[in-house]
Design goal:
By secondary structure, the chain is an all-beta fold. Helices cover 0% and strands 52% of the residues.
Length: 80
C-alpha cells in the first residue's frame, strides 16, 4: 500500500472476500477495500483528521463510515 504510513485497523467484508482497511495517508486517513489478490480500492479519505473506519452490516448492502476530526476553533472573551 504505497503512500501510506501504516494500517490503523481492518474489518472483514460481509461476503468474506476482502478487507476494509483503515490506513494513514498523506493529508489524512483513508478507507480502502482490499481483496485477496492484493488489489485495493480507495473508498473514502478523511482529510480533516487522522482516523477513519468502515463497518459493514451482516447483509453487506451498506457500509457505515466513521471519521475522527480535529477542529481548531479559537474563542476569546472580553469583559466577562
Amino acid at each position: 500500500m504505497k503512500g501510506r504510513k501504516g494500517i490503523l485497523g481492518l474489518n472483514w467484508s460481509a461476503d468474506g472476500k476482502g478487507l476494509y482497511v483503515f490506513s494513514e495517508a498523506q493529508g489524512g486517513a483513508e478507507l480502502l477495500y482490499v481483496d485477496f489478490k492484493g488489489d485495493s480500492l480507495a473508498l473514502w479519505k478523511n482529510r480533516a483528521g487522522n482516523f477513519t473506519a468502515g463497518l459493514p452490516p451482516p447483509d453487506g448492502r451498506q457500509l457505515a463510515i466513521m471519521g475522527l476530526t480535529f477542529d481548531g476553533d479559537i474563542w476569546t472573551m472580553e469583559t466577562f
